[in-house]
Amino acid sequence: MKKIFTLLLLVALTSVFAQQSKNTVDYKTNFNSEELEEIGKTIVDPVEKYEFYKHLYIVYQIDNLKYEDENSEINLDELRKLPNAMLYDFVKQYLSEYTIINEKPITTKQLDKKEEYEEFTLREKINTVDKSLSQKDSTFYSNFTTLVQPSYGMCGSYVEDFKRNIITIYGGCGTGASSHYNYVLLKDNAFVDLGNGYDKLTKREFKKLNKIIKSKVKDYTYLSGRSGAQFSQRPNGNFFVTLRGYVGDEAEASGGSVEITYETKDLKTFIPNSVIVEKLEWKSVGE
């Protein structure tokens, strides 16, 4: 009797492990979007499926970076040469601002929770994407994007420029007030986050920089985050950073009429005697 019980237990455990093996697919090191779409059809657990769709989204973005658009003025050849694993980290860190990519894994309980402003539960949304994927429906990508990037069509981030190994990333929701930039240096097959021109400065250094600007332009108010910045690297590794600031009640849409340049060796501090402040003739960004 004991032997029969042991045998039945072994069969049951084997069945469980076989089922787990069937539903657990190694997709996290796969960067082929077509293969992943097929793998996605085999994943049953909705919690795991949610994580899978995050991975698929990043791979789609890698495909976009590698796509060579003849009409594009941006040369991304140096990015395209990088290993997929590096591009994966780049997308995850810098191009996923308005997505669910960096959210914590969900729980089973969250699947059936519906927010007041939501029409469907998360489980229902996942099922909709699953159905359109399995049927190769033309609505798959729109359903998929709505799941992973809820504000798609309104908010997004993308590579706007790539010059002198510095990547310019724009983020926003279609309005000037939401516009912002981030800069990333590609050096020795590694990405270095340069920030937006001033947000890497320590609080003390930021306060000191503002004080210097104020001493040169009395009606200066604050630095502009929406007008972007310019980075240039010296042979010694230091950066010259040029950005804009506002005076008085100057409209934010102008981008600011004060131009500030400073030198930094570590992005956290700046060299005090390097600061140059120039009051420009009033003009909007891009003019």
Please tell me about this protein's structure:
The chain is an alpha+beta fold and 287 residues long. The chain is built from 9 helices and 9 strands. Strands 5, 6, 7, 8 and 9 form a 5-stranded antiparallel beta sheet that branches. Strand 3 and strand 4 form a beta hairpin. The radius of gyration is 25 Å and the shape is elongated. The protein starts with a helix and ends in an 8-residue tail after the last strand. About 6% of the residues have low confidence.
How would a textbook summarize the main sheet? 5 strands, antiparallel
H/E series: HHHHHHHHEEEEHEEEEE
Which percent bin holds the helix content? 25-40%
Measure the end-to-end span.
88 Å
Task: Describe the structure using short key phrases.
five-stranded antiparallel beta sheet, alpha+beta, single chain, 287 residues, 37% helix, 9 helices
Task: Please write out the topology.
Layout: H1 2-23, H2 33-40, H3 46-66, H4 77-80, H5 84-94, H6 108-111, H7 122-134, H8 140-148, E1 156-163, E2 166-172, E3 180-187, E4 190-195, H9 203-216, E5 220-223, E6 229-233, E7 239-247, E8 258-264, E9 276-279
Antiparallel strand pairs: 1-2, 2-3, 3-4, 5-7, 6-7, 7-8, 8-9
Please sum up the structure shown.
With 287 residues, the chain is of the alpha+beta class.
